[in-house]
Amino acid sequence: MKVPSGFQFAGLQAGIKPNRKDLALVYSQAPCSAAGCFTRNTARAAPVLDAEARLPATGMHAVVVNSGNANALTGPEGLQDVKAVCEAVARALGVPAASVLSASTGVIGHRLPAAKIVAAAPLLAQSLRPEPERAAEAILTTDTRIKMAARAVRIGGKDVTISAICKGSGMIAPSLATMIAVVTTDAAVGPSALAGALRRSMERSFNALTVDNDMSTNDVVFALANGLAGNEPMVDPGPELDRFAAALTEVCKELAKDIAADGEGATKLLEVEVAGAPSDEIAMELAKSVAGSSLVKAAIFGADPNWGRVLASIGARAGTAGYDVAPADARVSVQGVEVYDRAPAGHDGAVLKARMREPEVRVEVDLRHGEGSAVAWGCDLSYDYVKINADYTSLIVPRPDGGVAKDDRLANYSPAFKQQLLVEALGYIRRFAGTRCVVKYGGAAMVKESLKKSFCDDIGLLRSVGLRPIVVHGGGPEITRTLEKLGGKAEFVDGQRVTNTSDLKVVEMVLTGSINTDLVTLLNQEGGHAVGVSGKDGALLRARKLLPENGGRDLGQVGEVTRVNKDFLDLLLQQGYVPVISPIGIGEDGQSYNINADQVAAEVAIAVGAQKLIYLSDVPGILKAGELVEELNGAGLAAQLEDGTVQGGMRVKVRSILKALHNGVQRVHLIDGRVPHSIIGELFTDKGVGTLVTP
Ligand code: ADP
Ligand code: MG
């Protein structure tokens, strides 16, 4: 994304939220005109009160935003904390304290752990970069993705850029819509003209948005203009300012739609256009009443063409406000299909239902009562919205150091949630009974003792609900550490470890002698069903030397699997044992080979006819441009290998997965082994946690 000249961004984890980035900074060395639009909620948060009193203004340099804590309804300390944060950031940047603005988002009613932000300020300032992604990530709360937009516009013969980052997902309601946005531009424009343009751009963007009709305490949209584009400062009013405001509106509109589509629990974006209203303002109000109606939203979730609810909510709002509008005379269409025209219109219900399953649903209403029109955005209302919001503060516990943490033991959730979860899980348990599943435990993910323990608990659970797990483990960091201790060094080609004959002894010692034994011991603390086997035992893994790819480097004693002794594994599985395999193979020549564990896992899965193959690694799944790819098929995965999205150790995994899919394995899951119990989350819930690959 193109960002305006002279702006820099940073995002990091200051410890306000347990495991995610939570502090963002937007900075311009050149002083800026600044303006803001704020929530109309009278329960305003402290940073809103502070910024509102100081804007519009000139000479501004930075906006610091934290997530994880709203600093709202926090008493008199709230404003002191804002001051402390702005001062610390100003000090770190070497600018006046009055030139820094702040915003907060997160839980209401807990004191802001300002000391953590103050402590993080120097690092935040040092990590400024021209790319806005990390800042965009750090301002998120329940959002599932980052939100950024940009436009270029010619002003006074100069190229001006406008860009923005924003967050918003729940508590999103008209005027503004709950959210934080920071708009940056290199245009030269005075603060009051900027404020006017910003206000204008809100009307048809953020003010046209509703997710849940709940207005937040912390809404704020900041605009910073540093003038580095070199245009003559825009005159207010004037055609240049109009053009600027139009481009600004486009940026904000794009973000508003992103927010709606990423509403809490949302599965679809809802766009409602109302035309033929007595005025634009009335059209907007009616469009928002439709987009915000719980009944309309629930119908959109179910792809149910229940247009009666659309006219009912328009009639209700018009009647309450006394607008001269007769819904009976209207025309209504959904996804371009006419469903009502002064009377119910005949249409193919099945076709319309299918079209309503698309990720964007558009409802159009022509009231035939004037020239006013408007578009509003919202989203559907799903079970997940309630899940996300039913327990939000019950799970928040204060920490001794002043912050808050999430205590999400199941005991703290509502009975309804627990029941739902169990019903969902039990459905899977029934389906999985008796199926075989191979789990590759990544070397990189198995470094922490507590993680190993929770992994072993999970394998025990899988076994006790009737799944037949086989574990294949890697060696990763432990092999590297041992080699280095012995004076050698680790080298990788395309994710495969180069292994010379003397290294092989070390590799075998660590894999079979140490890691395998450890896992088996942990697994057998209860039950005693795990059996540790090296690929050499019972000639489980027959191997041959992996030949270098044309012109490639010789990898030494690295092998590939030629045959898996399926009978041996069948025997163990039939007796209820959990085989734990270390990836050392034996050649027809009697030599030992180090085999990449990803490949072994795939070959074993193919050999035993496993329905599932699971890779636990040290990443959330397959990442593309930093974002998790939740689901893809074999062709999609092959494309990622081709286009270079997948690198290093992930390449071996992907090639192994493709082979497994070609040979009968139905589902492959890539999940984060660093997250305790991620296997359980992936297998026993409808929406998994990592990447799911199907044929
Ligand atoms: P393991 O011990 O799980 O085999 P590896 O280091 O061999 O660990 O492989 C996982 C690594 O692959 C990740 O840590 C990551 O750095 C790298 N990787 C490369 N490209 C991607 C991608 N597109 N998505 C996820 N991880 C990737
Ligand atoms: Mg690897």
Task: Describe the structure in your own words.
The structure is a single chain. This protein is an alpha/beta fold and 695 residues long. Helices cover 36% and strands 26% of the residues. The protein has 20 helices and 31 strands. Strands 1, 2, 3, 4, 5, 6, 7 and 8 form an eight-stranded mixed beta sheet that branches. It has an eight-stranded mixed beta sheet with strand order 20-23-17-16-26-30-31-29, sandwiched between helices. Strands 11-10-12-9-13 form a five-stranded mixed beta sheet. A hairpin with a 4-residue loop joins β24 and β25. α2 packs parallel to α3, α5 packs across α6 and α17 runs parallel beside α19. The longest helix has 23 residues. It is globular. The two termini are 34 Å apart. About 1% of the residues have low confidence. The chain binds adenosine-5'-diphosphate and magnesium ion. Magnesium ion binds next to α19.
Termini gap: 34 Å
Find the structural class using helix and strand composition: alpha/beta
Mean pLDDT: 90
Number of strands: 31
Q: What does the radius of gyration come to? A: 29 Å
Summarize the structure.
The chain has about 700 residues and is α/β, with parallel strands linked by helices. It is about 35% helix and about 25% strand. The strands form seven sheets. Strands 1, 2, 3, 4, 5, 6, 7 and 8 form an eight-stranded mixed β-sheet that branches. It has an eight-stranded mixed β-sheet with strand order 20-23-17-16-26-30-31-29, with helices on both faces.
List the helices and strands and how they pair.
Blueprint: E1 7-12, E2 23-38, H1 46-54, E3 57-69, H2 77-93, E4 100-107, H3 114-126, H4 133-138, E5 147-155, E6 158-167, E7 180-185, H5 191-203, E8 220-225, H6 239-261, E9 269-277, H7 280-292, H8 294-301, H9 308-321, E10 331-334, E11 337-341, H10 349-355, E12 360-366, E13 372-379, H11 383-390, E14 396-398, E15 404-406, H12 415-432, E16 436-441, H13 449-464, E17 468-473, H14 476-485, E18 492-493, E19 496-497, H15 501-523, E20 530-534, E21 541-545, E22 559-564, H16 566-574, E23 578-582, E24 584-587, E25 592-594, H17 597-608, E26 612-617, E27 623-624, E28 627-628, E29 631-633, H18 634-642, H19 649-662, E30 667-672, H20 678-683, E31 691-694
Helix pairs in contact: 2-3, 5-6, 7-9, 14-15, 17-19, 18-19
